[in-house]
Amino acid sequence: MNLVARFGGDEFLVVLSDTLLEGARQCASLVPEGVAYHPSLGCSGITLSAGVAAFYEETDLSKELIRAADEDMYRSKADKSLK
After folding, report:
1. pTM above threshold 0.70
2. Whether 52 contacts 28, CB under 8 Å
């Protein structure tokens, strides 16, 4: 089962079941590219940042998983601002 849901005002959560971390990273990289090349969205200056985290048996809480993805998203934003 895959799931896309609004998580906050401008945040969305995507759950990709049966997807390894590298596959999730590839998926996350495709979404901003799709927005950038969209005829209406790309020219309006809309940008996206994505964070990725993986669930493992050792992951205690869903909050921990969301926190890890959030931290990854902020790293992604910082990397973009350095370029």
Report:
1. no
2. yes
